[in-house]
Specification:
- The protein contains nine helices and six strands.
- With 238 residues, the chain is α+β, with helices and mostly antiparallel strands.
- It folds into two domains: 65 residues, no CATH class; 108 residues, no CATH class.
- The strands form two sheets. It has a four-stranded antiparallel sheet with strand order 1-4-5-6, with no helix packed on it. A two-stranded antiparallel sheet has the order 2-3.
- The radius of gyration is 20 Å and the shape is globular.
- This is Transposase-like Mu C-terminal domain-containing protein.
- It holds the Pfam family Mu-transpos_C.
- It comes from Candidatus Magnetoglobus multicellularis str. Araruama.
Length: 238
């Protein structure tokens, strides 16, 4: 019964509230938010600047990493020996930092890693496990994340991603582009798991980039769209 209640709450918040109502032609959540006329908009990008800490570092010429609070973060080898600005959220678990030039130009996100002597090796890819998720589990997990965010107040870690495009909006947009109806319901559990991995891979993913990738895809399916996104981000790194 407890699992059923959690599943219902997840469906209510992620599917019902995000699906256009046949009578009102609007999403229930949109109608609710429109009624909150007393809410004052806040520029979260300005707010987070007060909490992000910045330190100047030299990228280690031998290991191509930077050290913050006795932790090491892997930096692209092309920045070896460069002086850079390292920005990070002091309230987070510090599993990554953001690398900028001394002129405040963003370079990359540097993940936490274990230094290996002799070479700057790429992180070992995680072992691909057999999918264990289903549609209900994905709904519950996503809803639990939202509840945790509400319980803790402002999630500075999420804000560092500059108010990231919601996963549900990503799914709805892709479904619409592919001519599918139903948002999350338009995809199978396996497809949702694949799309979640694609979404998690690109922190700056937004609607224009997704549409660009879809238009460039030779075949309008998930695999080809994901490939085009990869190409777009590769070009952006050059």
């Amino acid at each position: 019964m407890d699992h059923l209640n959690k599943a219902f709450q997840a469906w209510l918040h992620l599917v019902y509230h995000e699906t256009v109502h046949s009578e009102t032609n609007e999403k229930p959540r949109t109608m609710f938010q429109a009624a909150l006329s007393n809410m004052k908009p806040i520029n979260m990008e300005r707010v987070i600047k007060f909490f992000m800490k910045t330190e100047e570092r030299t990228v280690n010429p031998d290991f191509s990493d930077v050290s913050i609070n006795k932790k090491l973060f892997k930096v692209d080898p092309k920045y070896r020996g460069d002086r850079v600005l390292v920005k990070y959220d002091p309230f987070s678990e510090l599993d990554k930092v953001f690398i900028y030039t001394l002129k405040e130009v963003y370079l990359e996100t540097a993940p936490l890693y274990n230094r290996e002597r002799g070479a700057h090796k790429e992180q070992e890819p995680e072992t691909v496990k057999k999918p264990k998720y289903n549609y209900i589990d994905i709904l519950i997990d996503t809803h639990d994340e939202q509840l945790m965010k509400q319980a803790k107040g402002i999630d500075y870690k999420k804000l560092l991603q500059q108010q990231r495009w919601p996963f549900t909006s990503f799914i709805e947009t892709l479904a619409c582009l592919m001519g599918k109806k139903g948002g999350l319901n338009a995809f199978t559990a396996g497809e949702l798991e694949t799309l979640k991995k694609v979404y998690d891979k690109y922190d700056t993913l937004n609607e224009p980039l997704l549409k660009q990738a879809f238009e460039a895809a030779e075949v309008k399916n998930i695999a080809h769209v994901a490939h085009q996104l990869k190409q777009i981000y590769r070009k952006g790194e050059k």
